[in-house]
Amino acid sequence: MPKRDGIGMLRYYNFPIDGRHMAHQQQSNNNRDNVKVFTYNVVFEPGATQDDILDYSGIKRIIEMAIEGFSCTAFCYGQTGSGKTHTLTGPPDLFLGKPNLTDPRHGLIFRSFVYLFRLIKNRKDFHFILKASFLEIYNERVIDLLNPGSVRQSLAVRWSKKSGGFFVENLFNVDCQELDDLLAVLEEGMRNRAVGSHAMNDHSSRSHTILTVHIVSEQQTDGGVFLSKHGKINFVDLAGSELTKKTMSAGKTLEEANNINKSLMVLGYCIASLSDNKKRFGHIPYRDSQLTKLLADSLAGNGVTLMIACVSPARYNFAETLNTLRYASRAKRIRTKPVIMMDPREALILSLKRDIKSLEMENEHLKSVLHLHHELNSQRKHEGEEVDLQQIGESTNLPKIHMERLPELDSSELAELVKLYMQENEALRQENNHLFTVRETILRDQEIVCRENERLLKKLEDVNKVCIRSPVIPARPVLSSASGSEIIGTEIWTNPQDMEESEESERPASTVQQTQHNDGIARNILGMENILNNNTVIH
Ligand SMILES: Nc1ncnc2c1ncn2[C@@H]1O[C@H](COP(=O)(O)OP(=O)(O)OP(=O)(O)O)[C@@H](O)[C@H]1O
């Protein structure tokens, strides 16, 4: 059994072959070049149980995402009689009497509800509010399966500017505190949905159904703010595409089949356009059917969608199966950008809170850097060094507000606080930039002085070498009185006649001492410069 979560999934029964085998089987009849290869995230063989579908289809991850605030959808697609309803809800007789909760035939919806409540029970730090609705689209009319009324009045599908999507007006949304409430919604809807029979299925769905569970999760954050996320999960059981010749539909069933096929065709156009990189940003004909209006968000919005393609491997159904396989692999190419749905006011508060926190941190950091410079500055001043640094303002104009108090502020006050922080941080940034520029200049000066020092040291060495080699007549002070080893203002001269003698003769004390004496080297360098430029006579 494959174990990968994914958006595309294939289920078939009765015959042990998958989509790839199907193509190979056909190829023996036709040309070898006609082999069709399709790839899906998971392929379920006939032996797969309902539990396997829950474990390996990826639906568990989808439910977790719905709890985290994403808009999720799981839908079954395929020709009539291929097992869509069986996969989602199990056989229809499950809902006739009192349901047996341990029946292994229960489908994906029932199992997902159990899994959902298990997850919710484990997340004690959240408060959950669950609501469910169940509708069907029958002959392009939207009917509330939880409140169909005696005449099965249809509801209007409208566009919401606020949410930027379509919604069904006056649809019943039932509070579901317990698992039983959700199961009751499922049972009620299954009892009310339109079912008919034709040559290919005794219990054929004559409508598309959408069961939606809205999950609002509330959590108290560190700052005391309550954050709520609005996730949802749609379970969509599409009516099967029908070749009316095969189903031998007539009268009412024929009208139903035409409407089913028409809406599936529009769904096909939408999927084809969305999966084509050139067309996906163009016009998508969502408005051409009620089904695509209500699935628009799942197909291309900010949601996550799991598609389960159901096929019949019988040779008799080859054309329909190939169609479904193509449909599913096209749908697999659609890319959505899932986002967590939050209350806009709470999302604003959360983002402002995040801004304040990061600005506060930046503020602290900038202040500490400035403080460091300030200390350095005072130290230098103390040592008598002249440093031209700007004085640093210790105090700030920011109101000191504790994080716990933030929830009490309304969004305009929060925005004002963010503005103040931004102004203050901008000023601190500028001050810091100035200090860094000064620092850079000082470092550059220091480097120049060092280089100059090195140059002079080298010169000094050269001079010393010459002095050592030359016989030296004792130094005669010419400028101020020279003391000890210092040669400032000392004239050194050599007598050419004494050259030979000089090698044996003792070096003058001043020179010897100077080469051994490294203290006050900087002053010596200055002195030597003087000598080289003015007084020294070297023969
Ligand atoms: N995996 C399966 N294992 C056993 N029986 C199955 C399986 N899939 C489908 N069936 C049986 O096949 C019949 C048709 O299945 P189902 O009604 O689920 O098809 P459908 O795709 O929903 O058809 P329609 O589009 O007409 O509603 C049912 O009797 C169902 O119990």
Automatic annotation (TrEMBL):
Query: Where would you find this protein in the cell?
Result: Cytoplasm, Cytoskeleton
Q: Where is the Kinesin motor domain?
A: 1-334
One Pfam family hit: Kinesin
Q: Write down the superkingdom of origin.
A: Eukaryota
Keyword Cytoplasm found: yes
Which residues are noted in the entry as ATP-binding? 78-85
- Entries under PROSITE patterns matching the protein: KINESIN_MOTOR_1, KINESIN_MOTOR_2
Q: Which family does it belong to?
A: Belongs to the TRAFAC class myosin-kinesin ATPase superfamily. Kinesin family.
Q: Where is the composition biased (Polar residues)?
A: 508-518
Q: Which UniProt keywords apply?
A: ATP-binding, Cytoplasm, Cytoskeleton, Microtubule, Motor protein, Nucleotide-binding
* Protein name in UniProt: Kinesin-like protein
- Positions of region (Disordered): 490-519
